[in-house]
Design goal:
This protein is mostly beta strands. It has one domain: Acetoacetate decarboxylase-like (Beta Barrel), CATH 2.40.400. It is 13% helix and 46% strand. It has five helices and 14 strands. The longest helix has 10 residues. It is globular, with a radius of gyration of 21 Å. The N terminus is likely disordered.
Length: 288
């Protein structure tokens, strides 16, 4: 009994006036219960992306006010394996690898804001709660889903290394329904500069941004809603091996999505590549 009393006495006692801390909820006495660690976050992806054209009217319907679709409603869809390393917890990949790994599916659009080029994600699905919450805070409307993509291992006797003829695919499921399938049949290797030129619309000259809509509803008569259009520029972008090829693209739907209208989108080209960058909370407020 004495050892129990000693152990209990060693637990710090916090008074009611102590400030709870953290980058996100839940706040806690030492901040370790936060769902998302402070930025910057170093992100990398192993991605299958399909660029498509859906028509400017349909693209415009998926964009917030102020953003303008380009080149006949040019958009993209991807499925990716993702890795996050927080500068706040640099050893997290060793201590808690499950808090650094997630999968992601996305649908987005190339667009402009008052002449400034960029992209906007109309749909995002991830496999971890911390990625979803960070997205909501930043202005990416993320949801939880099941996301899977082809993985190759060079030592597997039934697999060959990536090269012409290799087929890779990714899929997003949510609430028992298939929302998105993307795929590539590899035709050739590309340089990182070729990928950048191929992905960009013709008039995307100079630096471009990721546009986000930060929306939080009013939760009381004296608490106004937040509806902001913001822009973010990633830093430290570096691109690894890139492959391009024939695309495969299929949109599903559910009673909690608005994807059915995209079924007629025309896939243009597919890419499989690795890329890394740094995301920080340094948004430019455009409107709101």
């Amino acid at each position: 009994m004495q050892s129990v009393a000693v152990a209990r006495a060693a637990i710090p006692r916090y008074t009611c006036h102590m400030t709870l801390i953290g980058f996100t909820n839940p706040l806690s006495p030492r901040g370790v219960a936060q769902t998302v660690e402070p930025t910057p976050h170093h992100i990398s992806t192993d991605c299958i992306k399909v660029v498509f054209r859906a028509g400017e009217e349909l693209a415009q319907a998926h964009l917030p006010a102020g953003l303008v679709a380009v080149e006949g409603g040019l958009g993209f869809a991807w499925v990716a394996d993702m890795l996050k390393v927080s500068a706040h917890e640099p050893d997290q990949a060793f201590l808690n690898p499950e808090r650094t790994q997630y999968e992601e599916g996305a649908v987005g659009w190339y667009c402009r804001y008052q002449g400034q080029p960029g992209i906007y994600f109309s749909s995002l699905w991830v496999t971890q709660d911390w990625s979803m919450l960070f997205g909501q805070i930043m202005g990416w409307g993320k949801k939880l889903a099941e996301v899977h993509r082809t993985r190759l291992m060079a030592t597997n006797p039934g697999m060959a290394p990536v090269g012409p003829g290799t087929r890779l695919a990714g899929v997003v499921h949510r609430h028992g329904q298939t929302l998105l399938r993307v795929g590539i049949e590899v035709e050739r290797a590309e340089a990182a500069a070729d990928l950048e030129r191929a992905e960009r619309p013709r008039d995307f000259d100079g630096p471009w941004s990721i546009f986000m809509q930060r929306y939080f509803p009013s939760v009381g008569p004296e608490i106004p809603e937040v509806n902001q259009l913001c822009a973010l520029r990633l830093t430290g972008v570096q691109t690894g091996p890139v492959w391009s090829g024939r695309p495969f693209l299929e949109f599903g739907d559910s009673d909690n999505e608005e994807l059915a209208a995209l079924a007629g989108a025309v896939p243009l080209r597919a890419y499989a590549y690795e890329q890394g960058w740094t995301t920080d909370t340094k948004l430019e407020l455009l409107r709101g």
